[in-house]
Amino acid sequence: MRCFTHPLLRRLLGLSAQSVPGGLSQSKGPICSPKWSSLRQSCTARPGLVTATDAVNYWQKVFEINGIPEARESSEYIVSFVLGAKTFQSLNSKSLYTPLTALQQEQIQQLSNKRLERMPVQYVLGEWDFQDLTLKMRPPVFIPRPETEDLVSLVVEEESWKCEKNSDLRFPVSVPHPVILEIGCGSGAIALSLLCKLPQSQVIAVDKEKTAVDLTRENAHRLQLQDRIHILHHDVSHSSAKQLLLWGPLDFIVSNPPYVFHEDMASLDAEILCYENLDALDGGDDGMRVIKTILALAPSLLKDSGNVLWENGCKNVPPTHLKIAV
User: Is the dihedral of CA 204, 312, 251, 235 positive or negative?
Assistant: First the structure.
């Protein structure tokens, strides 16, 4: 274990500058904090020593020394989570400067140790927000990224446009509730967000990974949306359209498919390579492995002028929107 003489560390541990070893060992492991049992003892002897702000600053320093990306954000999310808040900025001054309990310190250390192992914060906390939903997260199920929210917004906009177009007709026709197929549901972020944004919709969510299907089902039950979603453990690359037509022709096919070129996979961050399902990212030699399957199935699955929308990997390019004439 390495020690460092940062003033905050000395204050957290109740040590003087002279009592901290000056030499650093040449350990090949991470530069870890001393166990927080010492911190708890110090806190008992000196009430008011360790606050949420102290803990954030301390763990930020530990993360930085160990080369953990987004060190400040990681530290803030962990401390906020232990204190029951979404963000560090949402904590009031009382929460920021009230001494942490021994249990809170222990929880912060346990979560921070996971982050030191390059576990993504979403997995460390076991939950993450997407749109207005708080979803359970666990490895190796793919973590939804902020840009995927644009895909949800695009589906909602397209459905709103359809409804407006119909209402402008001299003799509006009855429009059935939209039926949406999501291919590769992961945690259920896209499917469940669409159910909330489009209250009359129905979603069929499929994924070939059982861990993803189970997590989507868990999140659907937590959000009380299980009655409007059909979750299938299913590999569309080995299916026929007939298996997916039990719910009738579809209004939308949506997906955040694997689109990373296979040759680029090795250059992904350690957080991804060590914890996330790489098959959910690897798009093959041309990045189109799953996208080709979706496009092949679309004509036989969609209603007239149905829509296929998927996220792509091009920077500064919005999700791809394709209308299929059948």
Answer: negative
